[in-house]
Automatic annotation (TrEMBL):
Protein origin, superkingdom: Bacteria
Membrane topology of the entry: Multi-pass membrane protein
The protein's name in its UniProt record: Sugar ABC transporter permease
The family this protein is said to belong to: Belongs to the binding-protein-dependent transport system permease family.
Alphabetic keyword roster: Cell membrane, Membrane, Transmembrane, Transmembrane helix, Transport
Native source species: Variimorphobacter saccharofermentans
Record-linked InterPro entries: ABC_transporter_permease, MetI-like, MetI-like_sf
C-alpha cells in the first residue's frame, strides 16, 4: 500500500513539473498572454452585450413595467406587435429611409470617386462634405427644424429662385412630403461618413491598373465599373449594412423635428414611446427590439447573398457577372 502511494506521489510531482516547464516555455507563455488579453474583453462583451440581450429576451415574455409585478405572457407581446397597425405603419416608414440610404450611398460613392483623383480644392470639398457628420444628431435636428419651418431658410431660398411661397408645401406638416424632408436630413449628415470610407478603399487600388486600362482604351466609367467597384466591394457591403441598419433604426430626425407627429413616427420612436412613456410597456418594447434585430439580420444576409452573386471574391479582377457576360459574348461570337 505504501509503495503504491509513493508511486502516485512521484507521478503527481512529475506532472506538476511538466506543467511548470510548459508554462515557462515559449508556447506556454504565448498561451498565457492570449488568455490574459482575451479574458477581460470577453468578460466586458458578455456583461454589456450578451447578458443585456438575454435579459431583453426574458423581458419580452412578460407584461411588465420597470418597477412592479411581472406577468408571464409568453409570445403574446410578439403577436400583438405584428397585429398593431401603428407599429406596422412605422415599419413602412423605414422604406423611406431605406431608399434614402441607397441615394446616400450613390452620392457618397460619386463624390469619393471624383475626389480620389486630382481635383482642385479637393481637401476643402472633403472637409465640407464630412463636416455634418461631426455635428451632434440632436443639433442637426434643431437646425433642420428651423430650416424647414414655414417662411424660414428653405422657403426663403426657393422664393429667391422664383417659387411662389403660397404654392410651396409645408415641409413638416404635409404628410406627402414630411418623411422625405426628414430622410434628407439623415442623407445630409451621413454622406460624408460613407464618402470617407469609400475614399480610403479607392486609394488602396493599385494605380498601375488605371494606367494599363487607359492604354487599352478604357474611359473613366470603364475604370469605375471594372476596376474600382470590384476592388472596393467589401467597403460597399460594409456601408450598405451600416446604412440599412441606420435606416431601420432612424430616431433622431423624427424625435427632434416633428416628435413623431403627422405620420412621422418611425419604428424606433414608437418603441421608445412604449418603453419610456407613462405606459412603460417594457415587455412589448423589448419584443419590438428583438423583431427589429431579426429584420436587420435577415436584410444583412439577403444583401450579402446578393453581393456574392453580383461580385466575385476580393482577389478576382472581374466580377462573376462580368465573367458570365464575357462567356455569353464569346459564345455568340462563335
Amino acid at each position: 500500500m505504501d509503495k503504491n502511494n509513493t508511486t502516485i506521489t512521484v507521478k503527481d510531482e512529475r506532472k506538476q513539473r511538466g506543467i511548470i516547464k510548459w508554462l515557462r516555455s515559449g508556447k506556454g507563455q504565448k498561451t498565457l498572454i492570449i488568455i490574459t488579453f482575451m479574458t477581460v474583453p470577453l468578460l466586458l462583451l458578455f456583461v454589456f452585450t450578451y447578458l443585456p440581450f438575454l435579459k431583453m429576451f426574458e423581458f419580452s415574455l412578460y407584461n411588465m413595467k420597470y418597477i412592479g409585478p411581472r406577468e408571464y405572457v409568453g409570445f403574446k407581446n410578439y403577436t400583438e406587435i405584428l397585429k398593431d397597425k401603428e407599429v406596422l405603419n412605422s415599419l413602412k416608414l423605414s422604406i423611406y429611409y431605406l431608399i434614402g440610404s441607397f441615394v446616400q450611398l450613390a452620392i457618397a460613392l460619386y463624390f469619393a470617386t471624383m475626389l480620389s483623383f486630382k481635383t482642385k480644392a479637393g481637401s476643402v470639398f472633403k472637409g465640407a462634405i464630412f463636416f455634418p457628420y461631426l455635428v451632434s444628431g440632436i443639433a442637426v435636428g434643431f437646425i433642420f427644424k428651423f430650416f424647414y419651418t414655414r417662411g424660414f431658410v428653405l422657403d426663403t431660398v426657393l422664393t429667391w429662385i422664383g417659387f411662389d411661397l403660397d404654392n410651396l408645401p409645408y415641409w413638416l406638416r404635409d404628410k406627402n412630403i414630411n418623411n422625405i424632408s426628414l430622410v434628407a436630413t439623415s442623407l445630409w449628415r451621413y454622406v460624408g461618413q460613407n464618402m470617407v470610407l469609400f475614399i480610403g478603399a479607392i486609394m488602396s487600388v493599385d494605380k498601375e491598373l488605371y494606367e494599363s486600362s487607359s492604354l487599352d482604351g478604357a474611359n473613366r466609367w470603364h475604370q469605375f465599373r471594372y476596376i474600382i467597384l470590384p476592388s472596393i466591394q467589401t467597403i460597399v457591403v460594409l456601408n450598405l449594412i451600416l446604412s440599412i441598419t441606420g435606416s431601420l433604426s432612424a430616431f433622431e430626425p423624427p424625435f427632434v423635428i416633428t416628435q413623431g407627429t403627422r405620420g412621422t413616427a418611425t419604428y424606433f420612436l414608437v418603441m421608445h414611446n412604449l418603453a419610456h412613456s407613462n405606459l412603460q410597456k417594457v415587455g412589448k418594447a423589448s419584443a419590438m427590439a428583438l423583431i427589429l434585430f431579426g429584420i436587420i439580420v435577415l436584410v444583412t444576409i439577403g444583401q450579402k447573398v446578393l453581393f456574392n452573386y453580383l461580385f466575385s471574391d476580393a482577389n478576382a479582377d472581374v466580377s462573376r457577372k462580368t465573367t458570365r457576360m464575357l462567356k455569353k459574348y464569346n459564345k455568340e461570337g462563335r
